Design the sequence.
């Protein structure tokens, strides 16, 4: 009884620690978003010029900086909650590749908007939000691992309405290009990293079945070989007679 309780306690401690570590980078990222917004408001500044301006040299820094810049408190809050939750889910369930996926989603969505966006200043972390949601959904489906598929279904349940942000004209003053291109970046990364990170486990009973099948095949082969040898011996005796 004590051993099982100790095992349960150590397992719970492991998951608490893992959740804490999974929250660090998302927390720091969100903290910088809020600090940037606070500095803008406190000193009456406008950082929108550090966003992405497509096909413009002035807009190149926005590939990195734009997720930290928001037009208002509502815009900032609407990106903060889903970004934090999705990023924590990414680092918790895909810890082996999470940093690479997070960084590449951030980079690729920004580059794609710079290449294909409208002539305007694109700001906000929504491209990263859509990229993470897309990766978590499609990666679970591609890997066919029931726990990750369950996460995919949870993403649909919580953020399925985000799909309307992929189309132009649905929301006013919204960079639908960031949404759509971030979404495509997430799909590409889900395919790219499909063989890295968590995979569907191979259970012992499956190994035992495979071993038993191989053993039965080898036995049948040996039996057929012995039968062939007996046939050859009987044929030789027949020839001698």
Sequence:
């Amino acid at each position: 009884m004590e051993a099982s309780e100790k095992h349960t306690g150590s397992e719970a401690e492991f998951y608490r620690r893992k959740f804490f570590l999974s929250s660090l980078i998302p927390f720091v990222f969100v903290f910088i978003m809020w600090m940037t917004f606070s500095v803008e408001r406190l000193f009456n500044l406008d950082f929108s010029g550090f966003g992405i301006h497509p096909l413009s040299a002035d807009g190149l820094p926005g590939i990195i900086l734009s997720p930290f810049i928001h037009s208002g408190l509502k815009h900032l809050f609407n990106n903060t909650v889903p970004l934090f939750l999705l990023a924590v889910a990414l680092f918790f369930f895909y810890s082996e590749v999470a940093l690479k996926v997070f960084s590449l989603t951030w980079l690729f969505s920004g580059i794609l908007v710079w290449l294909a966006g409208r002539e305007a200043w694109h700001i906000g972390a929504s491209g990263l939000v859509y990229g993470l949601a897309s990766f978590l959904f499609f990666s679970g489906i591609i890997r066919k691992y029931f726990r990750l598929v369950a996460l995919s279904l949870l993403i649909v349940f919580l953020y399925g309405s985000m799909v309307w942000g992929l189309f132009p004209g649905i929301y006013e003053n919204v960079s639908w290009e960031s949404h759509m291109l971030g979404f495509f970046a997430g799909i590409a990364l889900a395919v790219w990293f499909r063989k890295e990170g968590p995979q569907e486990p191979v259970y012992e009973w499956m190994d035992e079945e495979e071993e038993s099948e191989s053993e039965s095949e080898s036995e049948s082969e040996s039996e057929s070989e012995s039968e062939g040898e007996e046939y050859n011996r009987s044929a030789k005796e027949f020839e001698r007679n």
Notes: The first helix runs from residue 2 to 42.
